[in-house]
Amino acid sequence: MSGKPKLHYFNGRGRMESIRWLLAAAGVEFEECFLETKDDLTKLQKDGSLLFQQVPMVEIDGMKMVQSRAISNYIATKYNLYGKDLKERALIDMYVEAVIDLNELLMTHTFQPADKKEQHFATIVDKATNRYFPVFEKVLKDHGQDFLVGNRLSRADVQLLETLLMAEECKPDILVKFPLLQSFKARISNIPTIKKFLQPGSQRKPPLQEKDVPKLMKIFH
């Protein structure tokens, strides 16, 4: 049995991608077991591997962990990406929850029906540029430090970078009014473990394409 965490999910981003990002940022090598068919999912469900009958599932430290937030919390704590005390952790949690809200919008864009896509895109841009990004821009301005919390890398930095890059895939100039976020993106992207994850050939997944949706539907529905 390998000591590497083993990730069970489809071969795409979804709710596993933030977990991949955290492991990569921590410099932890991991294996992936991709669900290709409905039978692959059913097998995990029937053998008791999935506590709530759903993925993502990560085998780590002798556990079969489910629920993406619980998995991310565990990884962040284990690899010192969760602040130095309770107050820092509370800040990190607040920032991460906001990032997750925006991430969910970005992640579900591909699944929108054709007649809803334009409105959904407008919602993404509005919430990113008027609700979320101004807050993070102000945080960076107010404390004048390189990282969001405690002047050291935390899961908040990692997950914000992931979402900034996704937002730019959606609208390349979306950060134009946020110079500190642009600097933050460049700075965090240059951390050696993260820089490696951003290189071609890494385990980072590309954006979901519309052609991929029917295959996913066959696995999960």
From TrEMBL:
It is an enzyme of class 2 (transferase). Residues 3-83 form the GST N-terminal domain. Its EC number is 2.5.1.18. GO terms for biological process: glutathione metabolic process; xenobiotic metabolic process. GO terms for molecular function: glutathione transferase activity. Transmembrane segments: none annotated. Residues 85-208 form the GST C-terminal domain. InterPro entries: Glutathione-S-Trfase_C-like (IPR010987), Glutathione-S-Trfase_C_sf (IPR036282), Glutathione_S-Trfase (IPR040079), Glutathione_S-Trfase_N (IPR004045), GST_alpha (IPR003080), GST_C (IPR004046), GST_superfamily (IPR050213), Thioredoxin-like_sf (IPR036249). SUPFAM superfamilies: GST C-terminal domain-like, Thioredoxin-like. Keywords: Transferase. Pfam families: GST_C_3, GST_N. PANTHER family: GLUTATHIONE S-TRANSFERASE, GLUTATHIONE S-TRANSFERASE A1. Belongs to the GST superfamily. Alpha family. This is glutathione transferase. It comes from Spizaetus tyrannus (black hawk-eagle). The lineage of its organism: Eukaryota, Metazoa, Chordata, Craniata, Vertebrata. The gene is Gsta1.
